[in-house]
Fold this sequence. Notes:
Elements: H1 12-22, H2 27-46, H3 51-58, H4 65-79, H5 83-104, H6 108-118, H7 124-143, H8 147-155, H9 160-171, H10 175-204, H11 216-230
Helix pairs in contact: 1-2, 2-4, 2-7, 4-5, 5-6, 7-9, 8-10, 9-10, 10-11
Amino acid sequence: MTGPGKLPARDFEEIRLAEALERGRCPLCDARQESSFAALRGLAREGATDRGLRDQMDKGLGFCRPHSVGLSKMELLQTSSQLATAVLLDAVLRRRLATLKKVAGGDASSQVRGLAELSDPRCPVCTRTAEASAAAVRRLLALSIDEAWSEALGSGEICLDDIYALWTAAAAGPKEVSARWSRILAAQLKRLDGLQKTLAEYAHNSTMDRRGLITREQQEAGAASIRFFGGSPDRDRTR
């Protein structure tokens, strides 16, 4: 089995990772987005009637800000309604309101402790995306034994946070994995060095008297730098 381009792939997960690299997207961003999409879709369809989930929410499970909005958008896409979202957020709000009232009645130190506990929404979608990201890291490092995958990882648009994630996992892994990652990292650093220089040229030519000197490559470097720091999942996919 092969992906849409030249990278060898044995299953659909590897095809998705290959497709992201071949289309200039960060494969780990894509993996998180795919997981988030699937989790929100399931919650929008069945979350309001899932007793296990409702019980978890009664014990403090909630949603982070992006996934609270994402859930409502997903439900609108699927049903043109926001009833399930309202039911789930009602369960979260009742729990949060009871906790807030309890915290408000305590002294200053207990309020600090209580608010620290409340700062983690224990979002089930975030949990799923973190698991998907970790699985993608393991898969990509395993795939790097193949020369084509190693070259793709070295030249691909992997965002900064995910370079950190791959690096951390490689450094904690077997020596052969760490050695393969060292070669990938060297290629990434060379790519980023070129990006930085082109970005500096773009900035240099941005004044009124030099704007005519701006090249397409320099403009693309500006967009690439935003993707590098902000991530680059599939922009056509609902998140």
